[in-house]
Design brief:
Chain lengths: ~280, ~450, ~300
């Protein structure tokens, strides 16, 4: 309801900011608690739930956490996560844009079939195809490397394909027609017209892809063996051992650190989100 | 017709992906992508005399654990490699739940690591499917020296008379209590309570201090009850006998109804399955039940010295239910091409003082009695309590139940569900027995197929 | 694929052939087809096959026909229980999350100096995903001595509720978590909102439409493809929700928070009944598939695509 273009009175602006700010504080509280907990001792986390500030600010958790496990420090894990999430994101964003265009603008035989396959792949829980997939990748000799984790990303991800399809369908056909009149092929239409217009959906895909790959530990768990190759998400799991005892303080410290890259990616990317058709000035 | 077509297609697909032939015995898959292949081939040719060929033996070693265990194990492995330059050990560690997912994927792919850390509850099912190597021959040839290891420890890793797993340490179930609260209530806790005594003491403590009591509902307690009743849990369940479970659920109900017991919803919130959220930590209860290797974490998190007593037994018990439990094992994969080298490493890991100097009983009290005696003075004060307790238990302990049968996990989950029903007052003890025993029997029958 | 075409009446150059939508479509989706056939198709068919077997991963599967499905529907009361729990979760978390996401997106689409900051803050809860950290975090928030109860006390409500231990409240802690992490839907709404041509609003303003009218006449209809996408996606996500239940509540208390996927996972790996797990998975695919299909069929009624005029 705030989307009008009339000049607003100061009062409304004030109410808007007070409300948005207050609500933001509520939203953010649990996160602040988590950051604060990363400075607490493990027993303090569990004995004092409601208090926010630690009794004393201690960087111990960060120091203990960073040294990692068995001589493999978090510097290694962070580097690995950047490689996995970075390459996967590049692959997923590009391939999903291309595939999305095909589904959105082209008419071809068995289109619904392939689209249904894509949705099916989104609906089937990974846990049940994990074992057969492992066997296939094992046969290919890929187990133990990043290949099973990164390569499939280069063949499109259902979520992003679908997102692009929805965005491309929102773009008026007139633009394609005009370009076709000018002698553009479907390929150059994609590259010159569609791609610039779906920037918000590409940015959204990039943010999500990076975040999901960054957070994903299951494929790392299954496919990686050498601790030198472990990503952060997987390493974080190793602070906890229900059978012997966990260092939750160190876990909170490293979990907090692991949020930093995703947050930075979001901060740098989010300004492109608002560059929709609205600001590029093309009219429907 | 359709059915046959389906079966054929499936069979073809299975064959295509070699799933049908995934068993360890027919395994021909090469060891992953690493350079391990050549090393493995060399040793296959040399068969145990690899040192003389000058080729390096590569062993994959896999375990679950936390930061401490990862650190000390890697340190010990490094020491071994420096003493045995012809052996290259690749380590791999993960968290508890992920570990078993990964291990099953690896088993399905026919490439289990050479040495795997094994748990008592998984031993049976891995052995039954032919994944684990028989270590008996290495024990008889002396490659793995067991002279200082008690016979019962070796037996705990044996199935049908053959040893498939070497225990790395011993644990014992224990009951913890808050010394200050117990003192305030003016009661004394003996070495071992009976359930009736526990009931009375809990009542007194609640009246005097207002602190509630915990009555454990886990599968450990079921096993203890059955043992005290002169039998074994899974023996009873497979035959559908209700005797011990009647005692168990009646006691359960008695405690659940008592106003001195921690309420069901608070207990569910605390979740005693996780060491750090056990209700004793924030004094929600004055007692708690656990395994001895968790004691150090619990007292650290609680930030105070906690008293230890044995797991309670029943009044007029037919036998002492307390037992020593192997905390975890190392097993060698049947698919391993370097069993001899793996066995040598196991021998060193279990029997050498220098290895255990590094490991410091992190996996439980060392099974080699000489090593345990040497390590003890080096352990800190809290660990000393554990040493003392395990020593005390070993004097009275009776042999542990046979390795858990397949289906144990599901029976345990069923048990939790039924116990919760009793705790929340949705079922009586009779209902619980009537539901639990036949369903558990069915699960075990299914799992045995 | 070229062979599928009707024979060309006159000779076309390769470039011309490739420019025909029927061919170009396949060229564009080729990566998907390759990836699907290489990495997904066989595992999917196998998992469907496993659903007709008794398979414990370590041993060779044994064909048992429809036995797993029969057990599921008639012999396993827990199956229906977890199905109900999951339905309840989806029914509440999906619409509430979407409404929240849309409301906040509308709030943040306005460009002010603080927009970037606000967007970041509202998105932050979603970046912590569902790690172990969020499990501890959430449990401490809703603990008996946690901040939620402390706040309740401040406003004079009973402040000693064991949210995670009561059979009627535990599932709501997970629903609230889902609502709290509305960030991804919000971002998609935001970019959807930004795609609406300014000219439409300008025209409406000239016609004298007020804010509310503009929302219902322009924003909402123009946003329907995005709403549709978010709905489908959140529906699938809702059914696939796993980690929340698995690491925060472990299904406690009394299985009131045991999600379908968690039970499926327990069957597949903890209980070593991968065959049964696969049967459960495919039944879920069937249910979600039918719901998705219904939504796709209703698209014509309410989703407005600019491209279709």
């Amino acid at each position: 309801m705030m989307t009008g273009y009339k000049e607003r009175r100061t009062a409304i602006t004030l109410i808007y900011h007070v409300f948005t700010f207050f609500f933001a504080c509520v939203m953010i509280y649990p996160l602040v608690w988590m950051v604060m907990s990363s400075f607490k001792n493990t027993n303090e986390i569990f004995r004092t739930a409601a208090s926010l500030l630690p009794e004393t600010f201690s960087p111990t958790n960060y120091l203990v956490g960073w040294k990692g496990f068995a001589g493999y420090s978090f510097a290694i894990f962070f580097k690995n996560s950047f490689v996995i999430a970075g390459l996967s994101t590049i692959g997923a964003v590009i391939s999903s844009a291309v595939i999305g265009y095909g589904f959105a603008r082209m008419d071809f035989k068995f289109k619904s079939f392939w689209f249904a396959c894509m949705l099916l792949a989104m609906m089937l829980p990974f846990q049940v195809i994990m074992i057969p997939q492992y066997i296939i990748f094992n046969k290919m000799g890929w187990v133990g490397s990043y290949l099973p984790i990164i390569v499939p990303q280069f063949f499109g991800q259902g979520f992003f394909i679908f997102l692009n399809v929805q965005f491309i369908k929102g773009i008026p056909y007139d633009l394609d027609e005009a370009a076709r009149m000018d002698g553009c092929t479907v390929y150059s239409i994609f590259y010159r017209i569609i791609l610039p217009l779906i920037k918000p959906s590409l940015v959204t895909s990039a943010i999500f892809s990076f975040m999901w790959r960054w957070d994903d530990f299951l494929s790392a768990l299954i496919y990686l063996s050498d601790p030198l190759k472990y990503p952060v998400s997987y390493a974080l799991k190793m602070f906890s051992d229900p059978t012997a005892g966990s260092d939750w303080g160190a876990m909170f410290a490293m979990a907090t650190l692991s949020l930093v890259p995703i947050f930075l990616i979001f901060l740098t990317m989010q300004k492109y989100l608002v560059e929709g058709i609205a600001s590029t000035g093309i009219k429907g | 017709m359709k059915k046959r077509l389906l079966a054929t297609t499936l069979a073809a697909l299975l064959a295509a992906t070699s799933l049908a032939a995934c068993g360890a015995k027919t395994d021909k898959t090469d060891t992953q992508t690493t350079g391990a292949t050549s090393a493995a081939e060399t040793t296959k040719a040399a068969a145990g005399t690899s040192a003389s060929t000058g080729g390096k033996v590569t062993l994959n070693l896999s375990w679950w654990g936390n930061q401490t265990r990862n650190d000390v194990t890697k340190k010990a492995v490094d020491l071994y490699m420096s003493q045995n330059p012809d052996v290259d050990i690749k380590v791999e560690f993960t968290d508890w739940s992920g570990y078993w997912d990964k291990l099953s994927a690896m088993a399905a792919g026919g490439n289990l690591p050479d040495i795997v850390q094994m748990d008592y509850s998984y031993l049976n099912q891995y052995q039954k499917s032919g994944q684990l190597a028989d270590l008996s021959e290495f024990i008889s040839t002396g490659t793995i020296d067991t002279t200082k290891i008690s016979e019962s420890i070796i037996e705990s890793g044996s199935i049908d008379g053959k040893c498939y797993a070497i225990s790395l340490g011993s644990n014992a179930p224990m009951m913890l209590y808050d010394k200050a609260i117990v003192e305030k209530a003016g009661v004394t806790i003996p070495d071992q309570l009976t359930m009736d005594q526990l009931y009375d003491i809990s009542k007194t403590i609640y009246e005097k201090t207002g602190t509630k009591a915990l009555y454990d509902g886990g599968i450990n307690m079921m096993q203890i009850m059955a043992r005290a009743n002169g039998s074994h849990l899974f023996d009873e369940l497979t035959t559908g006998k209700e005797d011990s479970m009647k005692i168990y659920f009646n006691t359960m109900e008695k405690f659940a109804k008592a106003d001195f017991s921690i309420s069901a919803d608070l207990l569910a919130e605390k979740n005693p399955d996780v060491v750090e959220t056990k209700p004793i930590i924030d004094s929600s209860t004055w007692n708690d039940f656990l395994l001895s290797n968790q004691y150090i974490s619990v007292s650290k998190t609680a930030g105070r010295d906690l008293g230890i007593t044995m797991f309670p037994t029943i009044t007029d018990s037919k036998s002492q239910p307390i037992y020593l439990k192997p905390s975890m094992f190392f097993s060698v994969a049947e698919s391993s091409k370097n069993k001899e080298a793996a066995a040598k490493f196991l021998d060193w890991f279990v029997n050498s003082t220098e290895a255990n100097d590094i490991l410091l009983a992190e996996r439980g009290i060392p099974v080699n009695s000489a090593v345990a005696d040497e390590i003890k003075p080096k352990a800190d004060e809290i660990s000393q309590h554990v040493f003392d307790y395990v020593a005390k238990v070993s004097e009275v302990a009776t042999p542990i139940d046979a390795p858990d049968p397949s289906g144990k996990g599901e029976v345990e989950a069923l048990g939790k569900t039924v116990v919760e029903a009793v705790r929340y007052g949705d079922a009586t003890a009779d209902d619980a027995v009537g539901q639990f025993v036949p369903e558990a029997k069915k699960i075990l029958e299914e799992a045995g197929k | 694929m070229k062979n599928n075409q009707t024979p060309p009446k006159r000779k076309e150059t390769l470039a011309q052939v490739l420019n025909r939508p029927k061919v170009a479509g396949y060229v564009f989706i080729l990566p998907f087809i390759i990836g699907f056939l290489a990495f997904l198709a066989i595992p999917m068919i196998l998992s469907l096959g496993f659903s007709f077997t008794r398979y414990n991963i370590l041993k060779t599967p044994v064909f048992i026909g429809l036995e797993n499905y029969r057990t599921m529907f008639t012999g396993d009361p827990k199956f229906w229980k977890v199905f109900g729990v999951t339905m309840y979760y989806v029914l509440f978390s999906v619409p509430l999350r979407l409404i929240m996401a849309l409301a906040v997106a509308m709030l943040l689409v306005k460009s002010t100096k603080l927009s970037g900051f606000y967007r970041a803050v509202y998105y932050l809860p979603s970046i912590i995903g569902s790690s172990v950290a969020v499990a501890i975090l959430w449990k401490r928030m809703f603990a008996s001595d946690g901040v939620v109860n402390a706040l309740m006390k401040v406003v004079g409500l009973p402040g000693d509720i064991a949210w995670l231990g009561r059979t009627d409240t535990a599932i709501w802690t997970l629903i609230i978590l889902a609502i709290w992490q509305f960030g991804s839907s919000m971002l998609i709404f935001l970019s959807g909102l930004k795609q609406i041509p300014v000219s439409l609003y300008e025209a409406a303003t000239v016609d004298g439409a007020n804010g509310i009218q503009r929302f219902f006449k322009i924003t909402l209809p123009m946003l329907t493809p995005t709403i549709f996408f978010n709905l489908i996606n959140q529906l699938i996500n809702g059914f696939m929700a796993f980690t929340q239940s698995y690491i925060i509540t472990q299904g406690k208390p009394r299985d009131t928070t045991l999600f379908y996927t968690v039970y499926m996972y327990q069957n597949s790996f903890t209980y070593n009944k991968l065959g049964y797990g696969c049967a459960m998975a495919w039944f879920m695919v069937f249910v979600v598939g039918v719901l998705t299909l219904i939504l796709f069929k209703t698209q014509k009624l309410w989703v407005h695509y600019e491209a279709e005029g």
